[in-house]
Amino acid sequence: MTNPRHNGLRSVADQTEDERGGPGSILSRQSRDHAELDELMRSYDATSDPGERGRIVAEVGERALRHAFAEETVLFPAYRRLLADGDDELTRHIEGDHQTVNEALEALQRADPASADYDATVRHAFEVIRHDAHDEEDDLLPRLQQVAGVHELRAIGAAWELQRRTSPTRPHPRIPREPPGNVLTGIPLAVSDRVKDGVDHLLPVGSTRRRLAAPVVVVAVVAVLVIGGRRRS
Ligand SMILES: [Fe+2]
Ligand SMILES: [Fe+2]
């Protein structure tokens, strides 16, 4: 079956895992992650509890951002390098969608999950994430499949997975969506995101523990800066 983009190529969604190049190929890895993301997004509609909705959006957000960052740093550069006609209009379009999702998720970090605005922003972000997955499965990945061999598809898959695991976990709409800017900022952002994730885990936002610990955290940060400054001088 050909895909709805009428490009004459078979959508990755209509291929078996063998046809995609096996479980480690970038086609299979993308397809699995898109399906898991979709299931997670569906669970948002299964509850009306603001706390639970906030937790689901945070999980979708982290997962979608890691997935997209690994595309921007690994998959899209490989696609632009391998495609003979250097067609990068498609990757620019998808990077634009990633930017929209980054901006929406950043706005959601400051929004109240019980508000109507929050729900509207979530639904818009989910729609863009789904649209993005279709662009990749129906267009970008089948085009890549035409020019890359199975070994290459698996090598790109392994590099994408490695990048996905080590990528930033929070929205960063102000960094470039393309190399080298995103590659250079990716490592320090991944480290600082994990520090923030650790603090949020120990001291949940809005909790009494967090309010009580805030002065201690400020004193600790100032102490580290002062001690660090003395050592350098
Ligand atoms: Fe994407
Ligand atoms: Fe994707």
Automatic annotation (TrEMBL):
It comes from the Bacteria. The keyword Transmembrane helix applies. This is Hemerythrin HHE cation binding domain protein. The chain crosses the membrane at residues 212-229. InterPro entries: Hemerythrin-like (IPR012312). Keywords: Membrane, Transmembrane, Transmembrane helix. Residues 1-34 are annotated as: Disordered. It holds the Pfam family Hemerythrin.
